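Batch job 17 of 40 flagged for manual review because the log was empty.
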Amino acid sequence: MNWITGTLGSSIGKKLMMAITGISFCGFLAAHLAGNLTIYGGQEAFNSYAEHLHSLGPLVTVAEIGLLAFALVHVITGLVLFLGNLKARPVRYAVNKSAGGRTLGSATMPYTGVILLAFIVFHLLNFHFVDKTDTTIFNIVSNAFGNPVYVAIYILSMIVAAVHVSHGFWSAFQTIGANHPKYMPLIRTLSIVFAVVVGIGFGFLPIYIFLLA
């Protein structure tokens, strides 16, 4: 037990927790996007997908609790690491160079993370916790994205998500030990591809609904 707490309490342990939870969220994003794409099949297809998902009952509840637990670990650990780095280097470098593989994603991870957290709360309030009595999930989505302000918020949030994922994806694999000259170029490429798929895949959905509305 002391070994476990000692490891998880170390900087390496915290980064490992960030990596594991981050990869899990990437898997969730892929599955969530695949489900949302059924909206292109029309109202009946999308409602059927939602009903099938909710019919899983306890399994969905367990998955939601697991996601919540992972989110808490990811957010709290990320905050601890950020504050630790800030404390270790209270004065920013005079010159901000991109050497050492520094990218927009890596430079903005804490900030895009905070924006995504706010968006997730916004998303849950608008879709998950709304009253679903005498309506369907398609109608809820259609009504929400009939508002151009909602559309703009979701598109901007998906751009932020793409930037966040573009670094988080390959960084997570690097943390768990995949940092090999032979594989990292491929993983970095896959990271960019996945980020683009997430950004465009989720970002175009509200545009499509808005045009239908």
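Reviewer: the log was empty due to a logging misconfiguration, but the result itself is present. The radius of gyration is 19 Å. Unflagging and moving on to job 18.
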